[in-house]
Amino acid sequence: MQKPLISLKNVKKYFPVGSGLFGKRDRWVKAVDGVSLDIYPGETVGLVGESGCGKSTIGRMVVGLTNPTEGEIYFEDIKLTDYRSKKKLGKNLQMIFQDPYSSLNPRMTIADIIQEPLVLHKIGTKKERRKRVDELLERVGLASHYGGRYPNQFSGGQRQRIGIARALVLEPKLIVCDEPVSALDVSIQAQILNLLKEIQEDMGLSYLFIAHGIQAIKHISDKVAVMYLGKMAEFAKTEELFNNPRHPYTKALLSAVPEPDPKLRNRERILLKGDLPSPSNPPMGCRFHTRCPMAMEKCKEMEPRLLSTSEQSMTACLLYKDKIAT
Amino acid sequence: MSIKEVMRRFRSERLAFVSFIFLLIISIVAIFAPLITPYNPNAQNLSNILANPSFSHWMGTDNLGRDIFSRVIMGTRTAIQASLFAIIIPLSIGVPIGIIAGYLGGIIDDIFMRIVDAIIAIPGILLALGITAALGISLWNAMIAIGIVAIPQFARLARGQTLQVRTEPYVESAKISGAGPIWTMFKHIIPNISPPVLVQASVNISFAVLAETSLSFLGMGAQSPQISWGSMIQQAYSMINLNPWLIVYPGVATALTVMAGNFVGDGLRVAIDPKLKKL
Questions:
Q1: pLDDT at A23
Q2: Which of A75, B141, B164, B264 has the smallest C-beta neighbourhood within 10 Å, fewest atoms?
Q3: Contact between chains at B176 and A87 (C-beta distance less than 8 A)
């Protein structure tokens, strides 16, 4: 069996909220509360969920911008949580950001932005780096003479391409895409998604693709993880998840997608009641039971674990518990 | 936003641009002052005291028969030197303190900022007086005091801006690629916090000129034979009944320079961030 490229083992991230008079911290926001996830070489794992469900925090932990409170992250069997290994392995992990305007330093030229990782890792001579920048600019669909310009001379879509070029310059094995298209026009979104796909085919890299829009996820992912309040609700192959969603939350998410075909418009729409509970004080039992249309009495007490519901999917819901036993 | 764009917008701020030209002229005058003055500014001519303005003495003479015009010209040197001190000292001490406090945060931030708060609690001119008194009365020490007084504002400004820039995705991106604190500060933070710091520096010109004039007026700055607008006003003030014009020339020179400094600061602020124009 293939070994996972990156592996999250029961990762938790708690943020302190406020502090007492003497800096004592007693209240925590449980942004990520026990997530395990494997990403294999060459695949794209999509991560969806509402705002505040912890999906961006997972991305930030994978690239090392923040450390997990508990649990471990492994990169090809090497533990990532200590700083030294991160510095050495850092060039295998890159990130593409949501906001194409604030992700490029306005006071650096495009060439300087793209080659910054090379300079930091002391790779190549000036001439070689310059050549690499030109190659990458062309790879992401920009003219190589753009290198001398500043970010403010480019549109949102072009800036996102520059961000992709910067992420590619060290030839990483995994790129965390943190909502890379949600700030862009719809017409540009598809271009960027296709570019990411092409690059993946060329270079064989993996993506952790974070988004709140389920359409972009469907387009690009091989597997999809659905998150709710810091926990994974369902993890399945993309086709399986879209054709046969199991968790009530996944069903609700899918039914919220606008349907362009008028003939299919009459399908059932699941509307969730209430608001997302606060992650500093998540509900007891199953976190989704306060809004779940199928909630049972036992959901208030028992917390479901993520268990296989078919060969291609795992679900954390008590509705499916019995099927596992048999 | 490029430098060119800022320059273009700054030029369209008429008042600020004119003020900038004015300050530029004053600086040039200060550099070449000894070549410009028609008389030796300290040469006394006791047979021609308290003269009214004439062709030979454009602004008249004082109670010792010294040419006022030459003295005002020499006074620009002191004013410009004070401005330079009030910019260089806080830029080289206050800004690094602010950047380090903002970037590192935690206990270092707390310590630095509480000290800064304590300094800010004392009125600027009073603090400058105190520092001058402690260092010994001289023009040199007065200028150092003016520079020290400006440190807290620059530290605060730099810290606030650093806090903002520190969390920008481009800084995080550099971190992912292995950038350390030194790289981040020089490549990302300093270039991006410099516009507001420069605005503060230009506003500080007027503070420095005013502070230097005040200290010299109080006898804590320029000592004879050094010439400052402040000490000129102080001398003229005792003769206000004999020749009220004496006080006008150094007073107007001070007022114009202070105003020009303020206008340039405002103009730069608008040029860097056009959204502020309406305020």
A1: 58
A2: B164
A3: no
